């Protein structure tokens, strides 16, 4: 059921859709940004594209946007750095603030917060060039997953099935990040829960199950093929659906997320226990993306979803009153 607040598109003023950027997910962001632009314009919003990968903060300030929709993914868009710049410029923006964006982009820090909150996430180890990989493999077991903690869209991730594959997997991730995350491999089904709102008003959308070819939900299968299957609402016992949504809300709130986001899960095959994988504070908005899919299952069109997200744009830090 659609629970969106009616809005006057003209009240948004001049809106910037920030897209492109300089991360490894630039191509995905360009697709997201173009989709959001078209959707907002179709609803009468005075929206304009702004590519943060080729234009400067001075140019952003000069545009005098009344608010911006962040359609950037990965570093320099989803990690708190841009959010900090927007706070300094005084431009209200969509999604999470500086701290939640930064924490959510760091899979290691996210795990630390979730574990402190008593939330289930796969066991892990932080490794570097001097780490004893054999000891890590013995502790976590094989297979295991190796990933750069500050990348998204499964970039740089390797499944290690044998000990002699570990070093090569580490090198791939280390080329993208200063630290590397080794994570226990959870055998089971993959799900995601999209979120709308903030704080006590944060609410989950219907659960989506992702079934990728050979279980490989990689960058190609996420964005550029039609081979991956999606089931929304996911076919699950009602109690398990509710538990996954409950955990998603707790995980989202624990990081301090707001506006919108997405929490990813694995459901362990052996005992049907859900494990939190990561939170996305600026998820994809492409034709293959999961938040629009979940919104549609609740009767919210892509266009209405974009307007709802834009409605929640705000500055998150208190703006001090200057004296003198």
From TrEMBL:
Function: Cell wall formation.
Active site: 25, 153, 289
Cofactor dependence: Mn(2+); Mg(2+)
GO biological process annotation, one example: cell wall organization
Enzyme Commission code(s) on record: 6.3.2.4
Biological pathway: Cell wall biogenesis; peptidoglycan biosynthesis
UniProt-recorded name of the protein: D-alanine--D-alanine ligase
Subcellular location, principal: cytoplasm
Cofactor binding annotation: Binds 2 magnesium or manganese ions per subunit.
Annotated binding of Mg(2+) 1, by residue: 264, 278
Catalysed reaction equations from the record: 2 D-alanine + ATP = D-alanyl-D-alanine + ADP + phosphate + H(+)
Keywords (A to Z) from UniProt: ATP-binding, Cell shape, Cell wall biogenesis/degradation, Cytoplasm, Ligase, Magnesium, Manganese, Metal-binding, Nucleotide-binding, Peptidoglycan synthesis
GO MF term list: ATP binding; D-alanine-D-alanine ligase activity; metal ion binding
Lineage: Bacteria, Pseudomonadati, Pseudomonadota, Betaproteobacteria, Burkholderiales
Family the entry assigns: Belongs to the D-alanine--D-alanine ligase family.
Residue ranges occupied by any ATP-grasp domain in the UniProt entry: 111-311
HAMAP family: Dala_Dala_lig
Provenance organism: Rugamonas rivuli
Subcellular localization: Cytoplasm
Alphabetical list of Pfam families matching this protein: Dala_Dala_lig_C, Dala_Dala_lig_N
List of residues binding Mg(2+) 2: 278, 280
GO cellular component: cytosol
């Amino acid at each position: 059921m659609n629970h969106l607040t009616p809005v006057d598109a003209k009240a948004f003023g001049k809106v910037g859709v920030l897209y492109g950027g300089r991360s490894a997910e630039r191509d995905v962001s360009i697709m997201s940004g173009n989709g959001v632009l078209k959707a907002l314009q179709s609803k009468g919003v005075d929206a304009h594209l702004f590519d943060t990968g080729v234009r400067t903060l001075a140019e952003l300030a000069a545009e005098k946007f009344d608010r911006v929709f962040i359609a950037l993914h990965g570093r320099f868009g989803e990690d708190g750095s841009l959010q900090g710049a927007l706070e300094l410029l005084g431009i209200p923006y969509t999604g999470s603030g500086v701290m939640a964006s930064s924490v959510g982009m760091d899979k290691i820090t996210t795990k630390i917060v979730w574990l402190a909150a008593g939330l289930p996430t796969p066991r892990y180890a932080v490794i570097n060039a001097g780490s004893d990989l054999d000891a890590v493999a013995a502790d976590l077991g094989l297979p295991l997953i190796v990933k750069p903690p500050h990348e998204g869209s499964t970039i740089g991730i390797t499944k290690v099935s044998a000990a002699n594959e570990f070093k090569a997997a580490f090198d791939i991730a280390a080329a993208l990040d200063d630290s590397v995350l080794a994570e226990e491999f959870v055998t089971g089904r993959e799900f995601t829960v999209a979120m709308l709102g903030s704080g006590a008003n944060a609410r989950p959308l219907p659960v989506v199950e992702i079934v990728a070819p050979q279980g490989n939900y990689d960058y190609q299968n996420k964005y550029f093929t039609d081979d991956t299957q999606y089931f929304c609402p996911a076919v699950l016992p009602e109690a398990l659906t509710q538990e996954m949504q409950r955990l998603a809300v707790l995980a989202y709130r624990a990081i301090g997320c707001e506006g919108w986001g997405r929490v990813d899960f694995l459901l362990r095959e052996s005992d049907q226990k859900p494990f939190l994988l990561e939170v996305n504070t600026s998820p994809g908005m492409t034709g293959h993306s999961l938040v629009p899919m979940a919104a549609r299952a609740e009767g919210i069109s892509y266009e209405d979803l974009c307007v709802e997200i834009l409605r929640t744009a705000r500055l998150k830090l208190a703006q001090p009153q200057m004296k003198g």
